[in-house]
Amino acid sequence: MSRAHPDPSRRPLWPGTTGPAVGTPPRARGSVRRTTAVDMTYPNGAGWLVLRGTGRDLRTDDDGTTEVLDTASIEVVVDVSGAPKIEAASIPELIGLPAIAGFRRPLITELAPVGSLLALLLDDVPSATLISGSSLVRTGRRRIPGSERQPPVGTCAGWIAGGDMISVIERGERPYFGEGPPALALDDGTDPLAWHELGDMAPGAMRRRRRLDICGGAAEVFFRDSIVELDGTDTVVHEYGITATVDPTTRLVTAIEAVPHVLPGPDCPNAAASAVDVIGLRLDELREHVRRNFRGVPTCTHLNDALRSLGDLFRFVR
Predict the structure, then answer these.
(1) What is the pTM of this model?
(2) Residue 51 CA to chain centroid, in angstroms?
(3) Phi, psi for 308 (deg, rounded to 5)
(4) Residue 1 has pLDDT above 50, yes or no
């Protein structure tokens, strides 16, 4: 039997999730921290999506001094009136490309080295375009999609046959649409370098934030998608935390744990166990391995995304 649909006014958490993270762990000495953000807005209605991505790689040396290793930014305007297509971009080579299916990976590797900050921002274009539609539904600018526009059954743990997400749609009820709890603050002001500078979000905007830390053999990934409701409340749609141990010599992942903080459906947390399948892989193998092999109901689209980004830390292991 299906569990009760989440009441947006109460915003309960599904079993198996821990709730939104609050604050950001201190930067360790001898570490590198990568932070990125991709903002998704529809400034002129529902037809045009603007993606603005920013990021920074920051090294904290053994004596506590810091060095900015890299910064990157992109801006992409997507026509979503039909099949999403890039109409304008800060990188001219992107103009004319499809924004979701068919976003050409070979071109991305030509524009930015694998594992680089810019490559990560570019890699977010398809997924950010896809999830941005949530903001239109949640703010009343687009009707709730019917079953014909939902992901295929078996896409991931949340869309398993007989699961709650599928069952409510089959009964003609309102589908789950990421009505998560309020996003707790990640910036408490104690460390002005904890994140790179980010602006405020207007109602209806979405933001994807990432934090990746590596210090010796200890790695950590934080991932959050959130939306600002019309009343100004920032609420979480997806959030994961990952901790991993890496052999600094071989760059092999020797241990990993994925913790679901917030996910849209009650079956979604079942995917967390799939993270252990990357144990024994080198960091620089993760992106391609996850892309090729992490599919179907044992997995989660957003966990897979976080695991791929973990692989980028191969650039900083020392």
Answers:
(1) 0.93
(2) 14
(3) -60, -40
(4) no
Q: What is the mean pLDDT of the chain?
A: 90
**Alpha-carbon distances of 34 from 75, 192, 209, 220, 294, rounded to whole Å:** 19, 15, 11, 10, 24
User: 234 has which bridge partners?
Assistant: 228
Q: Measured in whole angstroms, how far is the alpha carbon of residue 211 from the centre of its chain?
A: 10
Classified as helix, coil or strand, 117 is helix
Distance CA 180, CA 206 (A): 13
Q: Is the pLDDT of residue 7 over 50?
A: no
Assign residue 216 a region (left: φ > 0; alpha: ψ between -120 and 50; beta: otherwise). left
- Spatial contact of 139 and 203, defined as CB atoms under 8 Å apart: yes
**Which stretches of 141-269 are DSSP H helices?**
164-170
In the block, tokens 């603050």 appear at: 185
Under DSSP, is residue 171 helix (H, G, I), strand (E, B) or coil?
coil
% of the chain with per-residue pLDDT over 90: 71
Closest CA to 206 of 55, 54, 37: 37
Q: Residue 70 has which token pair?
A: 């890299």
Residues 95/86, Cβ–Cβ less than 8 Å: yes
Helix (H) or strand (E) holding 286: helix 286-293
Q: Report the alpha-carbon distance of residue 1 to residue 152 in Å, rounded.
A: 21
- List residues bridging with 60 in a β-sheet: 31, 66
pLDDT value at position 176?
A: 72
Tell me how far apart the alpha carbons of residues 129 and 51 are, in angstroms, rounded to a whole number. Answer: 8
Q: How many CB atoms lie within 10 A of CB 82?
A: 7
Mean pLDDT of 251-279: 96
Give the pLDDT confidence score for residue 149 in this predicted structure: 55
